[in-house]
Design a protein that fits this description.
Blueprint: H1 3-16, E1 30-38, E2 41-48, E3 51-59, H2 65-73, H3 76-83, H4 89-97, E4 110-114, H5 119-136, H6 139-144, H7 149-154, H8 185-188, H9 204-218, E5 235-241, E6 244-250, H10 253-261, E7 269-279, E8 282-294, H11 295-303, H12 316-333, E9 337-343, E10 348-355, H13 360-372, E11 379-380, E12 385-386, H14 390-410, H15 422-425, E13 430-431, H16 439-448, E14 457-465, E15 470-479, E16 488-489, H17 490-495, H18 502-516, H19 522-529, E17 533-536, H20 537-553, E18 558-559, E19 571-578, E20 593-595, H21 596-599, E21 600-608, E22 611-613, H22 615-624, E23 627-631, E24 634-638, H23 640-651, E25 657-659, H24 660-669, E26 671-672, E27 675-678, H25 681-691, H26 708-722, E28 727-729, H27 737-752, E29 758-762, H28 767-777, E30 783-786, E31 799-803, H29 804-809, H30 811-814, E32 818-825, H31 836-843, E33 845-852, H32 862-871, H33 879-892, H34 896-906, E34 910-911, H35 918-921, E35 927-934, H36 938-956, H37 960-979, H38 981-985, H39 996-1010, E36 1015-1019, H40 1022-1036, E37 1041-1043, H41 1049-1061, E38 1067-1071, H42 1072-1075, ...
Helix pairs in contact: 1-5, 3-18, 4-19, 12-13, 12-14, 24-34, 26-27, 33-34, 36-37, 39-40
Length: 1168
């Protein structure tokens, strides 16, 4: 309701409560033509049947102007409302409660005189007119009480300067860093009305937020940081003259050079002045020669410094101004400012900007600045006395105002001023306009609502139960800075004039309650009357429903009685009973079509919390009441719109025809057609039996041992796929998803002897990995690699391994067949359902579908839908249905209940275990070593073959030292090619796409960063480290540290400390020689060996940088090996300990130089 209408209704009600009026038939054909108000008298001219009549009311309400003045003077909230002509019903109630009514309380306080016969009808017409007038112009009620409103208001309009309390003592030896977190402008303006009073239809809020947003976008990019020459041995002295802040600079030589560099922009003159100096511990005033200049010139000079200059020759005053300028720029950049009304005199005001004390960060910096202020930096020229420490805060605000107006002048073109924006972006004076339309006061109050979080003392709103339908509303006070200070009631502070910080508490609480009362008017009464206000159930409902959430964001808590904390809403409940003759074994069969009417009986109920009532009982209840009601010891919300929707739903026929997947989704979500379902015990048992994995043995042909959690994963995969349900295994990286899926394929082969192969689709970089894993764990599986230019599809194989790109290109060939299993690895590759790749993969026909991924959701819930669309098409509905049922409620509205429902319906078909899970940690080795096989790219393969051919010719035609040199050259060249073509060619522009190793490294690093973990990345070559550093920065937007042998000892220590302690530093690259020994880097739980050292001891030493005492997590080690190259051959030799290069002798590359040409070709030839 509009505040004016609300007040008018309130006043009319007060007049009509008098016994002069009773419930009689009122003549509505009586009109008030005009009214005149004089001291204690209201005179009206009224019309009836074309005739005019006089009607007057004389008021005899006891009034005491001095008493009222004292009462309001004590109450900042009352004072503010009075000065703004913004009285509300709570104002009148409170004044009356305190023994000073402004409206008549009985018949004796009014005397009616009129020449019309129908007095009662005329009285109603007159009271209606009078109520509207008082609501429009609050001064009318004071005239009728014989009180001089102008006299009252004149005492309350001028802005009073506030003392800034200085708390805490800081050491000036070490300056705190000038860092502030960015303020959220939406939160700053959360309690700000669209417009101040008297400015309807202007949208002040939008325009002021435009300024804040421009500061956010553009301030950092301005050229304020020119880093001018430092002024050495120069002191600055501030003083006021003719209401202008000026600075005396002595010695002036250095600053004069700065002024001259600015051309004729500034005028300056050298003169003598007595300024404060400290000698032998005492402050004396001494004549000095220097420059006398406007303060703004000095302020602009120090804005040019981007960092603090701390050298002995720089004076304390210069350091102070340097530091305060840095704080000002940081504050403006992060929106720690607000406008305020500055009074030039009683009749003129303008808009300036001041610091917004939004949090402890800024308050701590201000407190330090006060402490850091030199004693002699500011003085009173008229009497040669020092200014106190409050000058530091005054200067800070002056500096911030200067800086912001400087920014506004630079951005004038972007801030195209309209009549409203002019208030904030154009320096000009305005008239105060005293009386009922006090624009200055209205703006000041409006500005006060910006950043309400700044206050130290906050109201705590407390609700106490009187009866089931009546409550007391009270205000307590909380000190947010000192949590040990007990909570006190507002009355205790107001009534005790010796209460500590009483003035500040009253001021801050009054300002906040004034803002909050715009949402909940009854709070004003508690503040003014200093006593609890009675509220009813509907008012309490509004307080909880509309106010609690936004107030909580401002740090204002509402405490309500316990039995009101679980207010319930009615919801429809569908109770079901399963027919006893239902065949449970086929209930959830993938092939079945079901009519719910055939398998169960339904009945609608309405749930009020845990109380269940019939639809008839609910309809009877909704006809009698609405809003918040008490029903059967529960508080229930009944909204007309919700009641209508529920009744409509009760009459709507159920959609009872569905397939088994839809039934399963309904069972797990416990909903049918968005109605909650209460299934009976028989149905729940059938559901549990379907979900629980069945027992089965590990396949005998598995060449390896499954850990306990892997056994569980295998059984879950087996059980779901046996029932023809697709499933997604989403274990954390390194937990062995591949071996669990291979176990499933082996089990299927042992039991079914399939006639056609299964197919696994993987990123190209993982083809080699899958091939190796099959050779290692499932050698009995015949594998067909369907990839490369000469690819052939072997339908007699057990498993076809191909890539996403090949599926897209060869879909016509691959889609002709049906596969026992269609498996996709790194399933996030089909996260976008509209891409050709996703459509192609989903075209493949299979008996069951399996997805593997460490990140089932990267950005949006639609990615999960796409994976399930592959696994169990239709289970989560269409994409549109999923969007409205899940994506919107979860992503936009942060609906926890919907998120839990999605988890329920997906959990039977999605298994995710993390390395950090307690059930997993104990089952993992302390150090898990993974061999990650990478493919050469085409570019790498061509370089490899060409380099091998050319260098082998040189090796064959040489002998002795030359031959050894050529072999070492070959090793280095091929290592570089396997690392990245740019490592070999020295190309300056590169990406991960050119190297199989780099591609896999980016995938591994991406997962590690997403899991908020750290990693050490080892390489033998500094050049490769620099390449990786650049690729990581470009493709992962991560700044990787690089620890190498050329760094100084101090720089090394800095890098180690930063990596160990800085949570944002996720990746450290280390050259193997520099970082392989002697370091303790336990912050990382992951290690990647980019290029392997040919001595396992050296490799282990590097790994032990993180796997050592102090490491509290399992360490995951990735060894990157390029498949089909000498790297794979050397690794096989190391592992099998072949006699060709015995482990005890194989200490590096030198041994290979002793091999024959044939042996070298055997090791280095490319096998792809």
């Amino acid at each position: 309701m509009d505040s004016g209408i609300e007040l008018s209704s309130y006043i009319l009600k007060k007049f009509l409560e008098l016994s002069v009026f009773d419930e009689v038939l009122i003549d509505k054909e009586i009109y008030v033509k005009n009214a005149e108000y004089s001291e204690k008298k209201a005179e009206f001219s009224i019309e009836k049947d074309g005739k005019l009549y006089d009607f007057s009311i004389e008021f005899a309400i006891p009034s005491d102007e001095k008493k009222l003045f004292d009462l309001i003077q004590e109450q900042p909230g009352l004072k503010k409302r009075l000065s703004l002509n913004d009285l509300n019903p709570a104002f009148f109630d409170a004044i009356e409660y305190m023994g000073f009514p402004l409206l008549p309380v009985d018949d004796s306080q009014i005397n009616i005189k009129t020449d019309i016969q129908d007095v009662k009808s005329a009285y109603v017409a007159v009271c209606n007119y009078l109520s509207d007038d008082i609501a429009e112009d609050n001064s009318v009620v004071f005239i009728l009480n014989g009180i001089n409103l102008d006299k009252l208001q004149s005492a309350f309009t001028k802005k009073q300067s506030e003392d800034v309390g200085i708390e805490g003592v800081h050491s000036c030896g070490e300056l705190p860093p000038v860092v502030l977190s960015k303020l959220d402008t939406e939160e700053l303006f959360q309690f700000v009305d669209k417009n101040p009073l008297f400015f309807k239809g202007k949208d002040f809020k939008f325009n002021l937020m435009t300024l804040y947003e421009t500061v956010e976008d553009d301030f950092s990019s301005l050229a304020f940081n020119n880093n001018l020459a430092v002024l050495r041995n120069t002191d600055f002295y501030f003083y006021n003259e003719n209401n202008e802040l000026r600075v005396f600079i002595s010695p002036h030589t250095n600053f004069s050079f700065y002024l001259k560099s600015r051309g004729s922009l500034f005028r300056y003159k050298v003169k003598m002045m007595a300024v404060p100096v400290k000698k032998e511990g005492e402050i004396i005033f001494e004549e000095k020669q220097g420059l006398d200049i406007e303060a703004d010139v000095v302020l602009e000079y120090f804005l040019n410094f981007s960092e603090f200059v701390d050298v002995p020759a720089v004076s304390h005053s210069s350091k102070f101004l340097n530091y305060i300028a840095l704080v000002v720029k940081e504050a403006v950049k992060n929106c720690y400012f607000k406008p305020f009304v500055n009074y030039e005199n009683e009749n003129i005001f303008n808009i300036k900007y001041e610091l917004l004390y939004a949090n402890d960060e800024i308050e701590n910096l201000v407190s330090f600045i006060v402490d850091f202020m030199p004693e002699t930096i500011a003085f009173n020229k008229e009497n040669n006395t020092l200014k106190n420490k409050n000058f530091a805060v005054e200067l800070l605000n002056k500096y911030l105002d200067f800086c912001l107006w400087k920014f506004i002048s630079i951005k004038a073109a972007k801030l195209k001023p309209n009549p409203v924006l002019l208030y904030f972006v154009k320096k000009q004076n305005y008239k105060v306009m005293k009386g009922s339309n006090n624009v200055a006061s209205a703006l000041s109050t409006w500005f006060d609502s910006i950043g309400i979080l700044k206050y130290q003392y906050r109201p705590l709103i407390r609700v106490e139960k009187i009866t089931e339908s009546e409550f007391f509303l009270n205000i307590d006070i909380v000190d947010t800075k000192d949590t040990n200070t007990p909570v006190v009631n507002i009355k205790d502070v107001f009534d005790n004039e010796y209460f500590e910080n009483r003035k500040k508490i009253i001021s801050e609480i009054s300002a906040q309650v004034y803002i909050l009362s715009k949402q909940f008017e009854r709070l004003s009464f508690v503040l003014y009357a200093k006593t609890p206000a009675k509220i009813n159930l509907q008012e309490l409902f509004y307080l909880i429903q509309e106010c609690s959430s936004p107030w909580a964001k401002a740090g204002i808590e509402i405490i309500i009685p316990k039995d009101l904390k679980n207010i319930v809403r009615p919801k429809i409940l569908l109770q079901t009973k399963l027919n006893k003759d239902v065949d449970f074994s086929t209930l959830f069969s993938r092939t079945s079509q079901i009519s719910l009417d055939d398998i169960m009986n339904f009945s609608y109920k309405v749930a009020l919390g845990d109380t269940i009532i019939t639809p008839e009982e609910f309809m009877a209840l909704s006809e009698k009441a609405e809003g918040l009601i008490n029903y059967r010891d529960k508080y229930v919300i009944l909204r007309p719109s919700e009641i209508s929707s529920l009744i409509k739903q009760l009459k709507k026929p159920l959609h009872t025809k569905m397939n088994s997947l839809q039934l399963l989704h309904s069972a797990l979500s416990q909903t049918i057609d968005d109605v909650e379902v209460d299934y009976d015990e028989l149905f729940r048992k059938a559901l549990v039996d379907m979900i629980n994995p069945e027992e089965t043995d590990i396949p005998k042909t598995l060449n390896g041992e499954l850990r306990k959690y892997q056994v569980n994963g295998f059984k879950w995969l087996y059980s779901n796929t046996k029932k023809h349900f697709g499933c997604c295994i989403a274990d954390d990286m390194g937990l062995g998803k591949t071996i669990q899926v291979l176990s499933l394929l082996l089990k299927y082969k042992e039991e079914n002897k399939p006639k056609t192969p299964s197919i696994v689709v993987v990123p190209t970089t993982l083809i080699g990995n899958w091939q190796k894993e099959c050779e290692k764990f499932a050698p009995s599986l015949k594998v067909c690699i369907y990839h490369g230019l000469d690819r052939k599809l072997d339908m007699k194989a057990d498993l076809i391994i191909t890539s996403y790109a090949i599926v897209r290109m060869d879909l016509e060939v691959l889609s002709k067949h049906e596969y026992p299993f269609v498996i996709i690895d790194e399933a996030q590759n089909i996260k976008n359902p509209q891409t050709a790749q996703s459509v192609a993969v989903k075209t493949l026909k299979g008996g069951a579908y399996v997805a593997m991924t460490g990140t089932p959701i990267e950005n949006r819930l639609s990615e999960l839908w796409s994976i399930f669309d592959f696994l169990n098409r239709g289970y989560l509905g269409t994409l549109g249905e999923f969007h409205s049922s899940y994506s919107v409620p979860i992503e936009r509205e942060k609906d926890v209940d919907t998120a839990n429902r999605l988890k329920k319906v997906t959990s039977p078909f999605l298994m995710r275990r993390l390395k950090t899970d307690k059930s997993i940690i104990g089952d993992l080795p302390e150090k898990l070593v993974l061999d990650d096989y990478c493919n050469l790219t085409k570019e790498q393969a061509v370089l490899y073959e060409k380099t091998l051919s050319n260098t082998m010719n040189s090796i064959k035609s040489s002998s002795g030292i030359t031959r050894k040199g050529n072999i070492l050259k070959l090793i280095t060249s091929l290592k570089q090619i396997c690392n990245h073509p740019a490592h070999f060619t020295k190309e300056k522009h590169f990406t991960s796409e050119s190297s199989g190793k780099a591609q896999m490294t980016m995938e591994i690093l991406g997962n590690i960063v997403d899991n908020n973990e750290k990693v050490l990345l080892f390489t033998q070559y500094r050049e490769m480290g620099e390449i990786l550093q650049q690729i990581i920065a470009k493709e992962l937007n991560q700044e990787a540290s690089f620890f190498h042998g050329s760094l100084s000892r101090i720089k090394r220590e800095e890098l180690i400390s930063d990596f160990q302690q800085n949570d944002d530093r996720k990746i450290m690259i280390l050259s193997l020689k520099a970082g392989g020994t002697g370091l303790n880097l336990t912050a990382a739980a992951n290690v990647i060996h980019y290029d392997l050292w040919w001595n396992p001891a050296v490799e282990n030493q590097a790994t032990d940088r993180t796997y050592r005492i102090g490491q509290t997590r399992n360490v995951m080690v990735h060894r990157l090996i390029t498949i089909g190259t000498f790297e794979e051959k050397i690794d096989d030799i190391l592992k099998s300990k072949q006699k060709l290069l015995d482990m005890s002798l194989f200490e590096g590359e030198q041994n290979i130089t002793e091999l024959t040409d044939k042996e070298i070709m055997e090791i280095f030839s490319l096998r792809i």
